[in-house]
């Protein structure tokens, strides 16, 4: 049986934990706002860029570019985006579990990993996965410079034929309480052929290209890849902040319940002590009579 | 009344314009080009420059764009811009500082990334040019 003193000490410690979780919840909420704004605002651009690329690829027809070239996949690179910090509920674990399920240990030959985020780096680094490189610092907010550098690195790996395909595994932000881990192919760029067959895109055959399809490809493709990487990063960040906010909210609530329970227990103990003292006094008085 | 077409400008961080306009002039990689309603399908790269938009009510607006793409098809013009600013919202003092910085860096050979610095210089010059044009 705990003494009153012990219970009081426990209440104090839970209270200070609660203060921390509550602060983290509020910080995450503020960051979530900015992160979702960015993630959602960049979706139309990403969609349009994919559309332009599609019509360009459809119209240019025979035009080839190294980034379109599909090779037999001997080495596949997967970029896994998780977070830098923990305390965000199941956010990181969901990503890792997805990887474990998707690529069971038996068939990981030719699979290379590029973890992004300190947690991902730590997790995959310690386990039997083959890493090609890692980016152990994702940062707090979307950083276009970082996305740019990563994109350039991925394109270089692909062009140097060190890898034959690149895909991104990240967490798509759906809503504060809902996220989805997805794997999307990044390289080679496979333009969606089905859409070009549509009637409304038939007119695309007659596009005027200035200065030339090749020149437009040269500038469009790097931007497209960069944007895809940036988009994956911002979606992941928004998901991370949402996960942290929700789990810290739950932690604060649990702390509140624990404090209530401990307070109740402490009060009971105090009451019992008082009752015992009174009965002892009464007993003593009785004995004196 | 002249016919209109739909103009939308998207950047990686926001959708900035989405409206019916009468005409628009863009800084194409091969020179400035104007777009009116029912323009032929076109895809071109944009360089840093001015975008002049003329609305059906006769008002015109001036924007600074820092490069991107223009796609015209089916009476719609879509701009995928790296960044876009309205003339009125440009911080001329900041652009002037950026220009000054780029010029100083240009003199210190080898110390800075030349391509990036040149791009910064062009962006700053472009912003100041747009501010100047908007005033006159």
Describe the structure.
The complex is a heterodimer of chains A (289) and B (136). Chain A contains seven helices and five strands, in the order ααβαβααββαβα. Chain A is α/β, with parallel strands linked by helices and 289 residues long. Chain A has a single domain (25-246), classed as ATP synthase, F1 complex, gamma subunit (Pyruvate Kinase, Chain: A, domain 1, 3-Layer(aba) Sandwich). In chain A, helix 3 links the parallel strand 1 and strand 2 (111-116). Chain A starts with a helix and ends with a helix. Chain B has 136 residues and is an alpha+beta fold. Chain B has helices at residues 92-107, 114-135, and strands spanning 5-11, 14-21, 23-28, 31-36, 42-54, 60-73, 76-81, 84-86. In chain B, strands 1, 2, 3, 4, 5, 6, 7 and 8 form an eight-stranded mixed β-sheet that branches. Chain B is elongated and about 50 Å long. Chains A and B meet through helix 2, strand 5 and helix 7 of A and strand 5 and strand 6 of B. Strand 5 of chain A pairs parallel with strand 5 of chain B, so a sheet runs across the interface.
Structure at a glance:
With 289 residues, chain A is α/β, with parallel strands linked by helices. Chain A is built from seven helices and five strands; from the N terminus they run ααβαβααββαβα.
